[in-house]
Structures are given as structure tokens and as C-alpha cells.
Amino acid sequence: MNKFISGLVLLIVGLGLSFSFTRSNLEQLSSLRAEVSSYDNALSQADELSKLQENLTNRFNQIPAEERERIQKFLPQNIDTVRLTIEIDSIANQNRIDISGLSFATNTQSDLIPDTAGDDLAVDPMAGDELSMGISRSNPDYSSVDMSFSATGTYENLKAFLESLENNLRLTDIQSLKIAPVSSTNNYEFSLVIRTYWLGM
Predict the structure, then answer these.
(1) Using CA atoms, how far apart are residues 39 and 30, in angstroms rounded to an integer?
(2) Is the pLDDT of residue 142 over 90?
(3) Domain final position from 62, 85, 102
(4) Which one of 99, 106, 120, 158 has the minimum C-beta count within 10 Å?
(5) Tens digits of per-residue pLDDT, 11-57?
(6) What Å distances lie between residue 63 and 66, 68, 69, CA to CA?
(7) What is the mean pLDDT of the chain?
(8) How far is CA 77 from CA 49, 62, 190, 199, in A?
(9) Which of 39, 62, 85 is the last residue of a domain?
(10) Secondary structure letter of residue 112 according to DSSP
């Protein structure tokens, strides 16, 4: 009888130890399986991203070189203030505008919200009015630089200059415009701040 009880006790203890050991291993196995599944998902997503990148690269390479140059000018990978200065100065000379006092201010992670109310604004050149357009909001996808300068010329020259900026391939926004008459002449002095953009931060 005692042998039977002892055997039963040992059997119960053995089953308990076996259950405890098995349960612990099953929990570890379940955790490992979840971790493996997570890695598999990450690898699958990385493979999809790699295929997407390859597809986009192939599509980009199919764009003619001339069109890629136009895209690069519209929204360049980096900002070249020397080239930008030459470009704006060339547009000013074409419209008989003399510019001076160039300065730059870099705005990182900024985006311009168009001010639709300013589409039909008229500026009185005799009143020295200031035209300001747009406000900023955060955007990490690209950065911008503000270019400030003064210009001298007739009001018609200014209009032609602004039209040339509008039609220029480079993406440009006018941030502010001040107009003041120059005494005893038909010319005006303009203070402008324009914003242009490039990809990255």
C-alpha cells in the first residue's frame, strides 16, 4: 500500500514538473515564433521597398535627359545661391531692372500655404504699400530659402519682371513686396523677398 502511495506521489510530482517545464518551453517557443514572424514581416516589407525603389529608378531613367534637367531646375536636390543670384540677376537685366543688396535666409522644414485672398490684390505704387502672401507650416520633405533684394525701375518694368519670375521654371513665391517712388523720376524703388525651394533638409 505504501509503495502504491509513494508511486502515486512520485507520478503526480513528475507530471507537475513535466507540465511546468513544458509550459515554460511552450511560452518561450510562442515568443520566439512571434519574433520570427516580426522579422519575416520586416524582411518582406524591405523586399517590397527594394522592388519599389528599383521600379521608380527605372521609370526615372526612362525620362529624357532634357526633361530631367527641367525637373532638377524646378525643384533641385540642393540650393546653389550663386546660381540663383545669377539667374535672378539675368531676369532683372532682361526687364531693365537694377537689383542690389542681395541677402539669403534659409528656412528649414517649411511649406507655404497659398493665400487665395491675395490672387487679385492691387498695390498702389504711390502709397508705398506692402504685399505679403502666405504663411508657413512644418514640412520635413523639403526646405526653402528667402532671397531679399532691392530693385530700381519703372512700374511697368517691375510688372514684366514679376511675370518673368512667374513663367520661370524654378518654383518661386513672392513673400513680400514694398514699392516707393523715387523723387523727380519715373522710377520706383522696390524691396522684394522671394522664396524658392529644394528637396531635403
Answers:
(1) 14
(2) no
(3) 62
(4) 120
(5) 565 555 565 656 666 677 777 777 878 888 888 888 888 888 888 88
(6) 8, 6, 10
(7) 75
(8) 22, 19, 30, 5
(9) 62
(10) E
Q: By percentage, how much of the chain surpasses pLDDT 70? A: 68
Q: Hey, what's the cell of 119?
A: 490672387
- Strand-pair partners of 176: 132, 193
Identify the helix (H) or strand (E) that includes residue 45.
helix 2-61
The angle formed by the CA atoms of residues 195, 197 and 200, to the nearest 5 degrees, is 145
In whole angstroms, what is the distance from residue 120 CA to residue 103 CA?
28
Q: Is residue 32 assigned to a domain?
A: yes
Residue 67 lies inside a defined structural domain of this protein: no
Lookup: cell for 120: 487679385
Q: What is the CATH number of the domain that holds 190?
A: 3.30.70.60
- In terms of domains, do 55 and 137 share one? no
Please name the amino acid found at residue 133: M
Say whether pLDDT at 129 is over 80: no
CA distance 136 to 107: 10
What pTM does this model have? 0.53
Would you state the cell numbers that stand for residue 193, as one nine-digit string? 523677398
Residue 116 has pLDDT above 70, yes or no: no
